[in-house]
Amino acid sequence: MRIARWVLGIAGAVVLLAVATVLVATLVINPDRYKGEIESAVRRETGRPFALEGHLRLTWYPWLGVRTGTARLGNLPGTGGPDLLDWQSAAVRVRLLPLLLHHQLEVGRVRIVGADIHLRRGPHGHGSWDDLLARLRSRQTRAMPASARGGSASTAWPATLAGLDLEKSSLEYVDERSHEHVRLAGWKFVVGPYRAGKPLSVRTSFVLHVDGAGQNASAAGIGALRLPAAGVRVSFEAPRLQLHPTPFEISAPQWSLQLADAKLQGAIDASRDAAGVVASGSLKAAVPSLRTLAHALGVGIPTIRDPAALGALALSASWSDRNGALEVEPLAAKLDSTRLTGWIARSRSPKPQWTFALRANQVDFGHYLTRSGRHKPLELPLSALQALRAQGTLRLGRARIHGVILSDVRLQVR
Fold this sequence. Notes:
The chain is 19% helix and 45% strand. By secondary structure, it is α+β, with helices and mostly antiparallel strands. The protein has a domain at 1-151. It has a 22-stranded mixed beta sheet that branches. Strands 7-10-13 form a 3-stranded mixed beta sheet. Strand 15 and strand 16 (249-259) form a beta hairpin. The radius of gyration is 29 Å and the shape is elongated.
């Protein structure tokens, strides 16, 4: 018992000494004295100007943490435009006792408020972030042999991250070649707890703005959109995301996306092998009104006589892609009173070709006549299909055209 009392007494004295040390350090140490060293280290590692314009604040127990005020990371010398990154405040903390007693690095939630990210691609295709990626790859390449010589994995300090909160932020992308201008306003990005080899949750939301797209914008790119001035609200969530950069693997057994009032959900599993990227998954979509969604996305559609046409759309599909060869099967969709089933495939480059076999239960083409097309003959989009190098078969169980009813119609596209 006497030994136990001695041990407890010594332990208590050590704890009191540690608490006293922390209290004194908190009162005496001025963290702003180290701002210059921090700024110099970031400049040296990034090759860019960096400034901590706000005050630094320290916390000691139970977390050893630092909180910054306003800060900015600039562009390369001689490069104009807004800074690559700036923020209003940032906080990061490390649990103190596991670090001291067990050499376990446990990082608390990282919180960044008011971050503004500006990405620019110049007229020659160079991105304002390319140099940072090159430095990161170079550092990883240099560290790989050293890590191989550094002993077994058991001697490494395990790292955990309690999560990331990015709030009241924005991201801007400008492409001077295509004149694309994309902005994410009111951006919120939340990452759940991270442990190596374990899935993590990801959630983000923002208002998407696309404007200033010129004539050189790719018709397939986001710059081809003409969104309304108010933008489009977008949210995405993947509660069990697994990502391995080397070798590349990504798995999301469940994800959901909301674009305006359209809701999409599905799954994805992708990896890279010697032949390229192999991916597969599923997709479900529920659109209350296709006409309303087109308006929200700034997509112009002709004025259709029937106000109920282009209404609710439901879609489900399974898909797979192997190095650009896409297969969608089975495919099922319902638009208005038409149900569509079948499959679609796209061959690999350099000359991709679409093939399909689809069947619709019924189609009333009268529902989709425009107000100015009272007596115009029905025109199928054959030229568009030929431009896509598409061939396949479309079967219509029942078709109604200007009061004429056709049964078991078969359309062949070659």
